[in-house]
Structures are given as C-alpha cells and as structure tokens.
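From the shared-data thread, chain only:
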Amino acid sequence: MSELARSIASRLRQFIGDRRHAERCRVNLPVEVSLVPESWHVQTSRPQSINGHTLDVSTTGLSVIVPQIRIGDHYLAGENRKLLLRLESPVGTLQIQGNAVRYERLEEEDSERGYLIGVTISAMSDEDRARYDEYVSSLLMK
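Structure, as tokens:
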C-alpha cells in the first residue's frame, strides 16, 4: 500500500471513527523493537533492534512510534511481520511478541517524525501478561 493510501486511510479513521474494540490508553513508554528471527537455531547473537516509544496501549495491542520503518534490509511492518517488543513499563520490563498490522508515516505537521506501527499482541509469558493486563486496567480506571 502506498504512503498516500495509508495517509488517506488514517484520515478516514479520524472522521469516520475507529473500529478497534479494545479501549486504548495514551501512554508514552520506552520500547525496543526487533524482528522475530525466521529461524531461532540460526540466530547466534541478539537481533538488531530500534528504540521508540508507545503512543497507546490496550489489552489486545499497542501503537509504537519508531524513527525508521526498517532494520537493516527488513521492514518492520511487512506482510505477516512478527515483532519482539521489550516494553519498559512501571510494572517492569515486559517481553511481547506481536504482529504488525498497519503502519503510517507521521507527517511533518504531526508533533513527531517517524513511523507509527500498530501491533496486535500474539504471545507473552503468563507472568508478563498478568502484569501487563494489571497495568492497562489501572490506566483505564483513571
């Protein structure tokens, strides 16, 4: 999908409404994003990563802002792209595996530069899931 089409779709969501079902909470938390290696046994060192921060979180996903859309030769938001997120939260560091479901380039008139990536959560340890859900619930109560 072209950048223009993504921009148009983003603007339509602003006017028509958002279809997401889980309530989102705006929060700025540091996050490290890396790609899930296609073959774990081949990976000999820690995967390359990029630092960014969250725009919002929900029980089913989160939006992250990163300065670039690629790590090396690989797009962060390619089709069926699996991401590893290391989220620094008030309840501790959380390891999240997710799928990039959309992205958009932030325009010059936006308050930030870079790319917004929408991520659905696909896997998390039981302990991290419990802490994450507790944290999101506390945000929803505010």
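The domain at 3-140 is CATH 2.40.10.220 (Thrombin, subunit H).
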